[in-house]
């Protein structure tokens, strides 16, 4: 065997949610009958016009894509009210995190982030050769910003603030995030991951894009994978000052956002009514689902996103397995807590039915 870096060889690979085909085969189910609520994807297809736009560019597949994402970047910059030079695109925000981690990590460095938070932060730290400092959430399952500040030391090069936080769906008020950023030394990069930004309606929440435009050490991450329903195409973007992005880009391979992805993302833009429709639909469905879970007495975090985080206790693993045999997939997050994505009405009905049936079986 070639000598793989020892810290990479020691990694236990990330478990992407079980593939539909595997589950279908294992339990004799039709893949189209499986309800996948494990990855916080949009339950509806892409925005109107996306499929047609993508089909129209496929014939140009022999050419490399636009490395600068010029058209997408200018259209998105207009929509966000930022300059094109304030945007950096990647093959999903996970790829951007990896690249930013590469730029900021190295032997002797550490990255600070909440826990539980987005599982990939742990991998980003490992890949970057940095120590991952995982700061437990507070009693409300939200980021403990005071403890995160205390975890920062001279060797910290990056702090990741997931707001709203995955897997809990909780938010931190904007003034608390801003005060936190104020207290972080300027040589430390603050990454504010706003993957679920578009779902939030609580007035205490605000984006940190203005901070990212003002401060030399703040970058905001967004994605087209969630409310924009383009998870398959892998498009995410970073918003920051142009001078910071110039540095971070040095750790990115060229041509990472492919032609279909750029086209699909462009076709999604400029549809505020559709965006609002999906936001309010998600909110109504979440309200219903969270209400149903509360009626059943499960402890829960307060979600502002397209997923809910609740406690099943010691039986969590068994319940998840039983639900899987009925074709309903949810995600165990450790410690008896689970995360379920808000699906469409039928998916949510199937979820509650399978959950109830799993409890019936257990008795
Ligand atoms: C907090 C958070 N950040 C980033 C991502 C990754 O999104 P992308 O599909 O753009 O890589 C996710 C996806 O689940 C997420 O939950």
In short:
Helices cover 40% and strands 15% of the residues. It has helices at 6-9, 20-27, 50-57, 70-80, 93-104, 120-128, 145-151, 174-183, 209-214, 242-248, 259-268, 272-295, 316-325, 345-362, and strands at 35-36, 87-90, 110-115, 131-136, 156-162, 189-193, 218-223, 236-239, 307-311, 328-329, 331-334, 337-341. The N and C termini lie far apart (50 Å).
What report would you give on this structure?
This protein is α/β, with parallel strands linked by helices and 363 residues long. Helix content is 40%, strand content 15%. The protein has helices at residues 6-9, 20-27, 50-57, 70-80, 93-104, 120-128, 145-151, 174-183, 209-214, 242-248, 259-268, 272-295, 316-325, 345-362; strands at residues 35-36, 87-90, 110-115, 131-136, 156-162, 189-193, 218-223, 236-239, 307-311, 328-329, 331-334, 337-341. Strands 2-8-7-6-5-3-4 form a 7-stranded mixed β-sheet, sandwiched between helices. It has a 3-stranded antiparallel β-sheet with strand order 9-12-11, covered by helices on one side. β6 (189-193), α9 and β7 (218-223) form a beta-alpha-beta unit. α3 packs antiparallel against α11 (259-268). The radius of gyration is 21 Å and the shape is globular. The chain starts with 5 loop residues before the first helix and ends with a helix. The model has no long low-confidence stretch (mean pLDDT 96). Pyridoxal-5'-phosphate is lined by residues 40, 92-94, 118, 162, 166, 193, 195, 223, 225, 231, 236.
């Amino acid at each position: 065997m070639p000598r793989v870096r020892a810290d990479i060889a020691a990694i236990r690979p990330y478990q992407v949610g079980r593939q539909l085909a595997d589950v279908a085969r294992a339990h004799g189910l039709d893949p189209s009958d499986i309800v996948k609520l494990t990855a916080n994807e949009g339950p509806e297809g892409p925005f109107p016009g996306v499929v047609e736009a993508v089909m129209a560019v496929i014939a140009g597949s022999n050419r490399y894509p636009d490395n600068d994402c010029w058209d997408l970047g200018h259209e998105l910059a207009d929509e966000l009210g930022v300059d094109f030079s304030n945007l950096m695109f990647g093959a999903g925000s996970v790829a951007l995190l990896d690249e930013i981690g590469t730029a900021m990590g190295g032997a002797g460095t550490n990255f600070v982030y909440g826990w539980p938070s987005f599982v990939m932060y742990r991998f980003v730290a490992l890949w970057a050769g940095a120590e991952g400092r995982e700061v437990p959430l507070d009693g409300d399952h939200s980021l403990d910003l005071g403890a995160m500040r205390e975890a920062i030391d001279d060797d910290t090069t990056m702090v990741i603030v997931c707001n709203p936080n995955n897997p809990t769906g909780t938010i931190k008020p904007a003034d608390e995030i801003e005060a936190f950023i104020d207290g972080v030394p300027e040589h430390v990069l603050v990454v504010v991951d706003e993957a679920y930004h578009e779902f939030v309606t609580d007035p205490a929440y605000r984006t940190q894009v203005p901070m990212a435009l003002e401060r030399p050490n703040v970058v905001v991450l967004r994605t087209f994978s969630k409310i924009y329903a383009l998870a398959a195409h892998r498009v995410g973007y970073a918003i920051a000052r142009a001078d910071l992005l110039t540095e971070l880009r040095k750790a990115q391979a060229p041509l990472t956002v492919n032609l279909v992805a750029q086209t699909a993302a462009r076709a999604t833009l400029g549809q505020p009514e559709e965006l609002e429709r999906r936001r309010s639909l998600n909110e109504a469905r979440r309200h219903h689902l969270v209400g149903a879970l509360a009626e059943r007495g499960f402890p829960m975090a307060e979600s502002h996103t397209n997923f809910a985080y609740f406690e099943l206790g010691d039986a969590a693993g068994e319940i998840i397995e039983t639900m899987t045999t009925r074709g309903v997939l949810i995600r165990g997050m450790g410690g008896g807590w689970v995360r379920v994505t808000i699906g469409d009405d039928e998916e949510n009905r199937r979820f509650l039915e399978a959950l109830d049936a799993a409890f019936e079986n257990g008795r």
